[in-house]
Amino acid sequence: MNALVFFFDNAILSGLIIGAIYALGAIGVTLIFGILRFAHFAHGDMMTMGAFLSLIFAVLLQSMGIHSPIALAFFGMFPAMAATALIAILFDKLFYKPLRDAGARPVVMVMASVGVTLMLQGVLRVFGGVSARSMYIGSPKAIFQFHLPDATRPIVLTEPQIILFVFTAVTVFALHYFLTRTRLGKAMRAVSDNPDLASITGIDIRHVVWATWIIGGALACAAGTLLSMDVALKPDLSFNILLPIFAATIVGGIGQPYGAIAGGFLVGLCESFAVFNWSILLRPLEPMFGVDFPSSLAIVPTEYKLMIPFVILIIVLIYRPTGIFKGKVL
Amino acid sequence: MSLLSIDGLTAGYGQMTILRDVDMALDEGEIGVIVGPNGAGKSTMLKAIFGMLTVTGGSITFDGTDITGIRSEKLAGHRIAYVPQENNVFASLTVEENLEMGAYTRRDDVSHVLDHVYEIFPDMKDKRRQPAGELSGGQRQMVAFGRALMIEPKLILLDEPTAGLSPMFMSVIFDRVIAINRTGVTVAMVEQNAKQALAIAHKGFVLAGGQNSYTDTGQNLLDNPEVARSFLGG
Ligand SMILES: Nc1ncnc2c1ncn2[C@@H]1O[C@H](COP(=O)(O)OP(=O)(O)OP(=O)(O)O)[C@@H](O)[C@H]1O
Ligand SMILES: [Mg+2]
Q: Is residue A328 part of a domain?
C-alpha cells in the first residue's frame, strides 16, 4: 500500500502537476499558431516574465500591509496576468504586426520570436539576476497530507499544487465556454479554421489577434507563476519548459486548444512515468516472480528527462503528424 | 439606374492584369450569370467586385456608391455577400456556427434571419449541430449559401455553386437561387453549367480571355448560334 501511495505521489501527481503547467503553456502556443501561423518561441520567457511580475505585485501587496492565508504571489498573479497580456499585445504591435503586414513568411516570424525571447532573457537577467528565488515572501508554503487507512505514508500536496489544479480546471471550463459560446470565441475558431473566408465574412481579424495574445499571455503568466510557486523562480525557467510545451502542442494537434490540454497532461505523465523508480512498485511482487529487481529501475535517469518530449515528438511526427486532435500539419 | 454597374474594369493579381476593360450591369432583383471557358477570369471578376484585387482601371458602383477598392471586410456593411468557389465553409464549426459567423458584422438580433435561412434550407436545420466539414458537397454549398444570406444582402455573388454536384443537387441549388432572388436579392453568379444557368438568368455575360465577349439576356445568349457553338458545347 505504501508503495502504491508512493507511486501515486511521485508518478501520477507529479505528472499531473507538470502536465497542468505544460497544458496552460501549450494552450497559448496552439492558439497563437492557429491564428498567426507561427511557432511562438518567446512563450517560455513570457512565462518567466509573468512569474517575475507576479512576484513584484506580491511584494507590492506585502508593502501595503496586506496579509492572507493564501500566498500573496497568487493574488499578485492576477494583475500580472493582465500586465503580461498587455505586454504580449505590445510586442505584437512592435515586432510581429509589421512583419505580418509586410507579408513575412512563417519562418521569419519564428526568427522574430526567437529574437524576442533572447531580448526577454537579457532583460530578466538584468533586473532579476541569475539566482533562484522563492515566490513565498512572508508566509511559508503550506503542505497538506492526506492519510489513507492502510498506509503509513501520506499523499502529499502543497498549496501551490492545489491552486494549480483548481486554476487549470477553471481555465479549461472558461476556455471551452469562450470558444463555443461567445461571438469572439467562435470568430477565433473561424479564423484559425479558414482565415480567407473569415475576412470575406467581415470578421475583424484585429480583435481575434488581440484575444489570442490576451489568452496566450495571461495563461503563460499563470503557468510561469504557478510553476515558480511550486518549485522556485529561476530566470532560466523557459529553457526546460519550452520543448515539452511544443511537444504537447504538436501531440495534441497544432491549433487545437483541447488537444493542447490533453497533450500537456500526456507529456507530463510520460515524463514522470519515465523517471519513476519502478522497482519500488515491483519490489513487493518479487516473491511472485522469484527474481530480485535492481534497487533503481527508472526508464531514464532524471537528468535526461528532457529527452522524453523529444521521443514523444518524434513518434507522433512519424505515426500521426496531425496529433491526437487532427491539427494542422507543419 | 442599375444596382451594380461596372465600367471599363481593369484588374488582376498584383502586377498581373487579368481583366481588361470589362463592363457589366445588373438591375435590382435580377439574376446575372457569368459564363466562359476555364481561366476566362470569371472568378477574378467576382473577386474584383468583392474588393480582393488590385483595380487599375475603371469603376464599380453599387447602389449609387462607388465601391471600387473598398476591401472585402467592409463590404458586408454595404450588404454585399460573396460565396467563393472553394473552401467556402468553416469546416470545424457547426452548421449553426457557420451561419452565426455570417452575421458577425451585425449587432442586432438575427434569430429571424436564421429562421429564414432554415426555411430556405430545411436540411440544414436538422444538421445544425454537425461540423460543416462532415457534410456532403451539396450540403456544404448550402451552408456557404446560408452564411452569405445572414447579412440579408442586396447583392449576392456566387462562384460556381453547382461545381462538382450531382444533377439532382444541381437543380436543387438552381431552385434555391431562384427562390432567394424572388425575395428581392440580386444575384451575380458564375456557372460552368452554362445552359441551365442562362435559362434562369435575366442577363448573361460571356467572358473570354479576361474581356467581354457577349452580353445579352439569358435567353438571347442561349438562342445565339455563335455563343452556342463556342461556349455552350453546341
Ligand atoms: N491567386 C491568383 N494569383 C495569380 N493569378 C491567378 C490567381 N487566381 C487566378 N489567376 C489567374 O487568373 C486567370 C483567370 O482565373 P479565374 O480563376 O478568374 O478563371 P475562371 O474563369 O474562374 O476559371 P474556372 O472556370 O476554372 O474557375 C487565370 O489565368 C489564372 O491563372
Ligand atoms: Mg473560377
A: no
> pLDDT (tens digit, 9 = 90+) per residue, B87-128?
999 999 999 999 999 999 999 999 999 999 999 999 999 999
CB contact under 8 A, B75 and A196: no
Averaged pLDDT, A300-314: 86
Q: Is B13 in the pocket of ligand 1 (CB under 6 A)?
A: yes
Is residue A150 domain-resident?
A: yes
pTM of the predicted structure, to 2 decimals: 0.92
For B156, phi and psi rounded to 5 degrees?
-120, 130
Chain A nearest CA to B167, separation (Å): 27
Confidence of residue A329 (pLDDT cuts 50, 70, 90): low
Q: What is the ipTM of this complex?
A: 0.93
Q: What is the pLDDT of residues B130-139, one digit of tens each?
A: 999 999 999 9
Per-residue pLDDT of A183-225, as tens digits, reads 999 999 999 999 999 999 999 999 999 999 999 999 999 999 9
Strands A143-146 and A155-158: antiparallel
Angle B183-B184-B190 (CA atoms, 0-180°, nearest 5)? 100
Domain limits for position B35: 4-88+153-231
Task: Residue A182: give its domain's CATH number.
Answer: 1.10.3470
Cβ distance B228 to B234 under 8 Å?
A: yes
Cell of A311: 521521443
Structural domain for A70, as ranges: 2-319
B121 occurs within a structural domain: no
Q: Torsion over CA of B160, B163, B168 and B174, rounded to 10 degrees?
A: 0
List, in sequence order, every residue forming a beta bridge with B217; answer none if it has no partner.
Answer: B203
d(CA A46, CA A121) in angstroms, rounded, equals 9
Measured by CA distance, the residue closest to atom 18 of ligand 1 is B41
At residue B150, does pLDDT exceed 70?
A: yes
Nearest CB among B82, B92, B104 relative to A187 is that of B104
Coil, strand or helix at A5: helix
Number of domains in chain A: 1
Give the CATH number, domain containing residue B171: 3.40.50.300
